Amino acid sequence: MERIRSEPGATSGANPKAGDAGAEARSEGAGGEDGGADEPSFSDPEDFVDDVSEEELLGDILKDRPQEADGIDSVIVVDNVPQVGPDRLEKLKNVIHKIFSKFGKITNDFYPEEDGKTKGYTFLEYASPGHALDAVKNADGYKLDKQHTFRVNLFTDFDKYMTISDEWDIPEKQPFKDLGNLRYWLEEAECRDQYSVIFESGDRTSIFWNDVKDPVSIEERARWTETYVRWSPKGTYLATFHQRGIALWGGEKFKQIQRFSHQGVQLIDFSPCERGRESSSPVRGAAPTAGDLAPICYFSLSTILFPRFTRSPQFRG
């Protein structure tokens, strides 16, 4: 009986075409492993020019990426802070936090140190830029003690200060500001007087008509003043006191007429004809005697005041 001898790699009864296909597949596989020319290439040609920007291609993603200036608008710099060592640093932080946290939530602080002591200034970061701006407006000039008066600035202001020109520029002429009828109360049909009341531990201030039956409220505001209020001699203006100075209010809606910078002001006096005023800041903790009035500031009001009928300095009516 004749026996059939099989060649190596051949399958008995296999289709010759199938064997050829397998050989081709093996050949292609070997070529792929060796980096054959049939493998697709993803490289750009030498003369390719990429004219699609990242913003056009990934605009939705790039607009949400963190920016270098994120959060800087919420940072303030407090200068003239006491220089302390490690043993007193925690106490200093508590004092600073108590003073500045009333303007908003403080999320971070940094006290630079040198030679084992703080450098005398600190960085405070608030939860929002609005809180930082409130801190600058209200805490700049805050007197911590006799040796330390805070100077508070926005961190972003430093670029502005560094680019101030050495040449003086003539300020632009401001347009005329109509202050309205500052003596409207003299035209009141029933000739009623006005008076002010501060209540709720000084948090609220109200202005009333002194009616025969019951007082009639005209205006009421929260935190209108930090200490007390005072009428000008002829009753034209209401002066409110603030840490950074005096504000004058007038007109039917008691709009702010003018502000005068005077750090720590506590006393004010007007000239009889309301053409000027003086203010003083007594030494903290002492009775306001003549020897304690330092400094005294004088301001001219002639540009905004006009002759009025004589009024009581403490009671307008």
In brief, what are we looking at here?
The protein is an alpha+beta fold. 19% of the residues lie in helices and 26% in strands. The radius of gyration is 39 Å and the shape is extended.
Q: Explain this structure to me?
A:
With 317 residues, the chain is α+β, with helices and mostly antiparallel strands. It has helices spanning 16-33, 54-62, 86-100, 129-139, 157-162, and strands spanning 75-79, 106-110, 113-114, 117-118, 121-126, 151-154, 194-199, 204-209, 216-222, 229-231, 238-242, 245-250, 255-261, 267-270, 276-282, 293-300. A 4-stranded antiparallel beta sheet has the order 2-5-1-6, covered by helices on one side. A 4-stranded antiparallel beta sheet has the order 10-11-12-13, with no helix packed on it. The chain has a 3-stranded antiparallel beta sheet with strand order 7-8-9, with no helix packed on it. Strand 7 (194-199) and strand 8 form a beta hairpin. The longest helix is centred in the N-terminal third of the chain and has 18 residues, at 16-33.
Distance between the termini: 143 Å
How many strand segments?
Answer: 16
Q: Which CATH class of the domain at 184-300 applies here?
A: Mainly Beta
Give me the CATH architecture of the domain at 184-300, please.
7 Propeller
Overall geometric form: extended
- Indicate the percent of residues in helices: 10-25%
Sheet with the most strands? Answer: 4 strands, antiparallel
- Helix tally equals 5
Determine the strand fraction and express it as a percent band.
25-35%
CATH superfamily of the domain at 184-300: YVTN repeat-like/Quinoprotein amine dehydrogenase
Rg over alpha carbons = 39 Å
Q: Can you list the strand order of the major beta sheet? A: 2-5-1-6
Q: How confident is the prediction overall: mean pLDDT?
A: 77
Structural class: alpha+beta
The secondary-structure element order is HHEHEEEEHEHEEEEEEEEEE
Low-confidence stretches: 1-14, 25-33, 283-294, 303-315
CATH topology-level fold name of the domain at 184-300: Methylamine Dehydrogenase, Chain H
Organism: Leptonychotes weddellii (Weddell seal)
InterPro entries: EIF3B (IPR011400), eIF3B_RRM (IPR034363), Nucleotide-bd_a/b_plait_sf (IPR012677), RBD_domain_sf (IPR035979), RRM_dom (IPR000504), WD40_repeat_dom_sf (IPR036322)
Pfam family, one: RRM_1
Keywords: Cytoplasm, Initiation factor, Protein biosynthesis, RNA-binding
